[in-house]
Amino acid sequence: MTRSMKLLSALAGAIFLALAQLPVPGAASENPTLPRSASDGGAESPGERLYKQNCRVCHQADALGVPGFAPSLTNEELLATASDKFLLTTIRDGRMGTGMPPFAHLGRKGIKSIVAYLRAHTDKPNRSAEVDAQPEARGDAGRGKVQFDLICSTCHGVDGDGYSAGGTGTAIGKAGFLQKASDGFIRETIRHGRSTTRMRGLQGPEGLADLSDQEIDDIIIYMRSLPNQ
Prior knowledge:
By secondary structure, the chain is an all-alpha fold. The protein folds into two domains: 43-126, Cytochrome Bc1 Complex, Chain D, domain 2; 130-228, Cytochrome c-like domain (Cytochrome Bc1 Complex, Chain D, domain 2, Orthogonal Bundle), CATH 1.10.760.10. The chain is built from eleven helices and no strands. The protein has helices spanning 3-20, 46-54, 56-59, 76-81, 84-93, 107-119, 128-132, 141-156, 175-178, 183-192, 213-225. Helix 5 packs across helix 6 (107-119) and helix 8 crosses helix 11.
């Protein structure tokens, strides 16, 4: 092969590689579950802007949180089971007795934009209406305490105080959480856990434990008694 032919061959290869890197019109993005942001060339939404100004300092830029400091806000299980009302009122009211302050000053429109920004991190359907419609827990608080002390307290604290008790889990024994969370929401979290967090599921062969439905309901009944103790 002559020198000129080699040069033409190399040039053709370079052009081919360059064309291969061009996006295909209408093709899905490589990671469709993440919202485009100003950092990757997209326009910054109002929710992203407010998140950066108010939430990022604790929950981090990726909203995955820090164990023992701030929870993840973008794991798929949370976004699939938490209703807009749960998220809106949590942001508005904060969580008394924890490091989460209220953000009512952002107004309903601002808080809704943050919720929309968080929801854009997953393409899985929102099942919250179905989850919240689950029947209320029926069980025995005494039996629930046994399971809670054995399994849940190692991360959430013996009284469900969460981070303030030195645990890596959130304050699930506080009224600010229990007044907003349905029994179905708590039940689904215990069953399946939360990806991208240290919360493992507690039911089924792949769970940290294989609790029965009744044992899970017993735990919920006990949790509901914690703010009164």
